[in-house]
User: Fold this.
Amino acid sequence: MLTATLIFLTGCPSEQVKKTGTADPSATPETVNLLAGMKAATSQGIMFGHQDDLAYGKGWVYPDGESDVKRVCGDYPAVYGMDLGHIEHLAPANLDTVPFDKMKILAREIYSRGGIITFSWHADNPLTGGTAWDISSDKAVASVLPGGKNNDKYKQWLDNIAAYFTSLTDENGVAIPVIFRPYHEHTGSWFWWGQKLCTTEEYIGLWRFTVEYLCKTKNVHNVLFAYSSSGDISDKEQYLNRYPGDDYIDLIGFDYYEMPDAGNQSFINNVSNVLNIITGVAEEHGKLAALTEAGYESIPDSTWWTSTLWPAIKDHKISYVLVWRNAHNIPNHFYAPYPGQLSADDFVRFYKFPGTLFQAELTKLDIYK
Ligand code: BMA
Assistant:
């Protein structure tokens, strides 16, 4: 009893995590509500998400209110992915040409209708100056940690991110809560933070430094943190091997794409197996689970949504599935249908399933209140 009282009074981190439910013990009420609302929404269905949904699509760039998803099914997705790549250099636009100022306006629009925003970060390599995919050195992560030669540079990068997150506000100045999903697909070795490019301690150190610097040093309190591996997961231990800890993470997930030569059944089996693992972990750790990236490039299968994606996810308690972007300047690099696309009719069937949630249904759930 005494111990419990003392812990309550002193507010040690893990007790605070229990109090707010969020990794950041000082998360804003709207951020706490976002997490609670997302948890509650899992009983209603699986939300559909799309990367850069409002920024561009097949044959269009930036007309306000446009969305390939909406053009096909009449409603926006529930979850909207955006990427912070190149914010580290304070570039005017991200690595996929979306201006950061435009994203800010889109974030306000999304929040005003009760949608959910998630930011990934394809950060350039801090050691070599190359892209996120530059894996020429296994010292990049070590270089940004305290004591490393790029620690100051990395703090500057996080200052830029902190300023950006803090600048996301609604028309009343209330901070818009977002999900931040950096250092994704780390169980693969194609990004500078990947499996073979750093040690377990370095990867966990990178995460903990990032969360603590943003929340404690920079007082950013409108962020939920997402940990997401690639699809190469065979058991719980492997999934948790580089997990930063419950005090740092709100949502767990993984990314998985269908490859043309592997076939639908292989996608269904792999997604379903890994979802079994991560929903088990989510349950044990009190976290949300999601399929944080998925898709089939060019969707060359007229019933992919209802006969492959849906069977892969339908029996799992996950918050959302997010498909990747419909690039406007790379032919055939798209993951959501557009009007006339081969799978468009099937996508409408998928949209109509009671178990899928798009914007209109999410708006009704009013999760931020
Ligand atoms: C990849 C591709 C790239 C893009 C990157 C970051 O999967 O879509 O064209 O730059 O994601 O969004």
In short: Residues 83, 95-96, 122, 324-325 surround beta-D-mannopyranose (CB under 6 Å). The chain has one domain: 46-365. Confidence is low (pLDDT under 50) at residues 1-19. The radius of gyration is 20 Å.
